[in-house]
Design a protein that fits this description.
Blueprint (H helix, E strand, L loop, with lengths): L9 H17 L5 H35 L8 H32 L2 E4 L6 H15 L6 E2 L14 E8 L8 E6 L8 E7 L2 E6 H7 L1 H4 L7 E11 L13 H12 L4 E7 L4 H10 L7 E5 L38 H7 L2 E5 L5 H12 L3 E8 L7 H11 L3 E6 L7 H13 L3 E2 L7 E2 L2 E9 L2 E9 L11 E8 L2 H15 L11 E3 L3 H17 L5 E6 L5 H12 L3 E6 L16 E6 L4 E2 L2 E5 L6 E5 L5 H5 L1 E7 L3 H15 L5 E3 L20 H11 L3
Length: 686
């Protein structure tokens, strides 16, 4: 990337982000099992990149064949650049995995395959195969395969060669799905003198192939791993006679028939079998074919088990209590007295569930409203809402059916809530609701009092353990009024009201951010205090990038903390010389969006659900909420300054070389921001 280049392509920027995840797997200072888990995160991210972004590039290339496009970039060139970068990262990935396995052996932890088992281990694996695994294995003979639709994303398959050593008949071939949705990918074998042994689930299947195919007259079986990735975009038709839920359900079925974008296989697979697979699965030479090693689908390493060695994992960081919210506290009463903010995962998400439970049985609570983008698989939040409805509260929920890869789960929850008497706000085709809002209406002395919760992240107790997010709880009348207005807007999106406090997309959020940036430019030109701190996940929007450049040229100091995609290149004279961009990738996933504007010495604070992307400003309902409480403002600034000072896990974004660490200067104290913040919240928890 030349230094004079002002922006980079978003797909390449995303791959640079995933490179930062890979760096965590490569970091020898991280515990070994955590490094394995980062390999899993990297692999999962890359799969989604192929399902969505590579698939989109291929669509654009096909469109270019039929008509001219004005995209601002050449899809073919970007696709080649992306695939070259993927290949480079893959090499580092394989080297890292080999290194980790060697170091695990040094810690008496061994990966073994079906050929390396001793007699006792063989008996253990045989018993597991017979009693547990075999009932879930359903081979499909390749010659009987009429359609590739049964192949599922996120799973691996074994392509099996059935051979007769006496050559009485030709080889036959079968496919077996490895049921990682039923079993852990990792089977722990009995310890031997303090040594731990792990066999992969597919190797357990290899061990049992002879038994699985015992009705056939073959005596030799070999199996090769394959993996199939489809285009994940949904095509929703315009049949107005069907409900949106019906259309989405049909589209999810269509996703199962999506075009292949990647086919990965064991490079030791016989050529005759590979050719038959490609023919049966309708995979052309244009699709991404990649030979690899014996094992694929490393996303499962995200769930690699703890093995009792505390030095191999991060120290436990349990969610901490909030100093104002002790056990048996009346949470509504505390919020009525003052605003408070929870910082996940440092502080406990359970408070939100407790608040909903409290509201569900409070006789003065009349109604609860809530938006959901991604709910947990077994959501206590949704169960609390169901309990509120059963207790006679008027419960209204907007559940985003179009949340990518969570559509099926959200359709289920929408049906469940509706069956329990919860009012479901209809989805809005063409728009997604990404704002994270909750509103409790309580009757106090004949007056409606609104208790609001505005969050930067999903109301999801599973992700709240690993996503770093911020959530405001307030009884501020004006904020409550505007949250209520937003819910009315979702029910009638064609008559947008005027918001005095919120910045709301898809209406005026971008325009209002530009207004705030213009104010900083004006103050800088007048010699006043002018600076901006922005924390987000993605920075792509070209209009705001131009405005940030204007602010930089006017002398406004701009500091950006960006975890993921960032197309803006900082430090370019005459364009971005006053802009610094860094990002933190560490134990927790940085997910919150925060904006602070100097405002000539009277800083303005906002938290938001929106990244600076076209989709967030123009195609989603998003909210940026002001923070008025001085104590919370101070806490937010402490968090931002701590992260800006990180010199252990921070990277300088779009620098040369790519993803270089922002390291401590000689004699400077190492600052690992997530660990520093945990210690801070621990010290202030009582």
């Amino acid at each position: 990337m030349a230094k004079t280049k002002k922006t980079i392509n978003r797909e390449i920027s995303w791959l640079h982000f995933n490179g930062r995840v890979l760096q965590e797997a490569m970091d020898r200072n991280n515990p070994l099992i955590e490094r394995l888990r980062f390999l899993g995160i990297f692999s999962n991210n890359r799969d989604e990149f192929f399902r969505v972004r590579i698939a989109t590039l291929r669509r654009l290339i096909e469109m270019e064949k039929t008509r001219d496009q004005n995209l601002g970039f050449a899809p073919k060139r970007i696709l080649k650049e992306a695939m070259d970068l993927v290949a480079s990262q893959e090499k580092k990935y394989n080297e890292t995995f080999a290194e980790i396995k060697d170091q695990l052996r040094d810690n008496q932890i061994y990966f073994v395959d079906e050929t390396e088992l001793d007699e006792g281990q063989s008996e253990f694996v045989k018993q597991f195969f017979r009693e547990h695994l075999r009932p879930f294995l359903f081979p499909i003979m390749l010659k009987n395969l009429k359609s590739p639709e049964f192949l599922r994303d996120k799973f691996i398959y074994l392509a099996v060669v059935l051979h007769d050593s006496k050559n009485r008949w030709p080889d036959d071939y079968a496919l077996i799905m490895v049921p990682t949705h039923r079993f852990s990918r990792f089977l722990l074998l009995p310890d031997m003198g303090g040594r731990k042994f792990i066999i992969m689930l597919e190797d357990v299947i290899r061990f049992g192939l002879k038994e699985l195919f015992k009705s056939f007259d073959f005596d030799t079986f070999t199996a090769f791993t394959i993996k199939f990735t489809r285009d994940a975009e949904l095509d929703i038709d315009n049949d107005f006679s069907k409900s949106f839920y019906e259309l989405m359900s049909e589209s999810l079925e269509q996703r199962k028939r999506g075009l292949p974008v990647r086919f990965v296989y064991d490079n030791k697979i016989p050529e005759i079998l590979l050719k038959q697979l490609l023919k049966r699965l309708k995979i052309s030479d244009d699709d991404s074919l990649r030979g690899g090693g014996r094992y694929h689908n490393f996303r499962d390493f995200i769930g690699f088990p703890n093995l009792g060695n505390s030095n191999l994992i991060y120290p436990e960081m349990k969610p901490l209590p909030h100093p104002l919210l002790q056990e048996s506290t009346n949470i509504l009463k505390i919020i009525r007295q003052q605003d408070l903010m929870l910082h996940y995962p440092y502080q406990s998400f359970q408070y939100l569930v407790d608040l909903l439970r409290e509201a569900s049985i409070d006789p003065q609570v009349r109604a609860i409203k809530m938006t959901f983008y991604r709910a947990a698989q077994n959501s206590n939040v949704i169960n609390a809402l169901i309990n509120a409805a059963r207790n006679g509260k008027k419960v209204t929920v907007f559940l985003e059916i179009q949340a990518r890869f969570d559509e099926k789960a959200n359709i289920y929850w929408a049906g469940r809530l509706k069956d329990e008497g919860v009012k479901i706000i209809k989805n809005l085709p063409g728009y997604k609701v990404h704002a994270k809002l909750m509103l409790i209406r309580r009757k106090e002395k004949g007056e409606n009092i609104y208790y609001s919760h505005i969050s930067t992240g999903n109301f999801n107790e599973s992700t709240a353990r690993i996503y770093a997010d911020d959530g405001l709880f307030t009884a501020n009348k004006e904020i409550g009024k505007e949250v209520n207005m937003l819910f009315h807007l979702l029910e009638s999106p064609y008559t947008p009201p005027r918001f005095k406090h919120f910045l709301v997309a898809p209406y005026y959020m971008r325009r209002n951010i530009i207004r705030l940036l213009n104010n900083e430019i004006k103050n800088a030109k007048a010699g006043g205090e002018a600076w901006i701190i922005i924390k987000l996940n993605s920075l792509v929007d070209s209009k705001l990038i131009r405005k940030l450049s204007q602010a930089s040229n006017a002398g406004v100091k701009v500091q950006i903390i960006c975890r993921g995609i960032c197309v803006l290149v900082p430090g370019i004279p005459g364009f971005s010389e006053n802009i610094e961009i860094m990002g933190v990738v560490d134990k927790f996933l940085e997910h919150s969006r925060i904006m602070v504007f100097a405002n000539n010495g009277s800083p303005l604070y906002y938290i938001s659900s929106a990244d600076w992307m076209i989709r967030n400003f123009d195609h989603r309902f998003e909210v940026a909420c002001p923070i008025y409480d001085k104590n919370i403002q101070d806490e937010i600034m402490l968090i931002l300054k701590t992260q800006l000072s990180d010199n252990v896990k921070a990277r300088i974004i779009n620098s040369e070389p790519i993803n270089q660490y922002k390291l401590a200067a000689k004699g400077e104290k190492p600052i690992r921001s997530q660990f520093v913040l945990y210690d801070y919240f621990k010290e202030t928890s009582t």
